[in-house]
């Protein structure tokens, strides 16, 4: 039997096919009332459609229909590696820091542990993506990936590492709109890549903001 949240996800997916991009959908509460289901079931259905690129959330405003270009495509490439192998890159920020609670949580380190933060732009003729790279400094030293040159080509140094990816359609962060040559309030895909060593340690967390006009296939 198909779970209720899957049934609802399929129903919403069918309903939005003829709806304009950026149009709002019903809230979790309204969906729960309309289909006589729990709010948790409605939330699970929406979460799945957000993760698959059919919907996106705008904080404090609601959930909206995504552009079809942001729907997932299946391929054998890891998105960060795929872009790294086909694009040139330019590091615009490099620093070693500590005492950042959010990054410490991403890397499962303490607030006193140091991490490397890098921001780089990937481009062909035009900007393709912007990567925010956070690396456990201790593990980076062990792997000799603690300098600008190697971090710029990090995809070459982490073959065999476990990769977990999460895809979220979002509104482009204002600070990156000009760099990506897109308009403010444009939709793009955010890809979070969690990189784990063979023994399960969190080596790095990479957040990629991919230009809406760049077609890239990703691994599910």
Provide a descriptive summary of the structure in words.
The protein is an alpha+beta fold and 220 residues long. It contains eight helices and eight strands; from the N terminus they run αααββαβαββααβαββ. The chain has two domains: 4-66, Arc Repressor Mutant, subunit A; 79-210, Chorismate lyase (3-Layer(aba) Sandwich), CATH 3.40.1410.10. Strands 3-4-5-8-7-6 form a six-stranded antiparallel sheet, with helices on both faces. A two-stranded antiparallel sheet has the order 1-2. A hairpin with a 3-residue loop joins strand 4 (115-123) and strand 5. It is globular and about 55 Å long.
Brief write-up:
With 220 residues, the chain is an alpha+beta fold. The protein has helices at 4-15, 28-35, 39-51, 79-86, 101-107, 137-143, 148-152, 174-177; strands spanning 55-58, 62-65, 88-97, 115-123, 127-136, 162-171, 187-196, 202-210. It is built from eight helices and eight strands; from the N terminus they run αααββαβαββααβαββ.
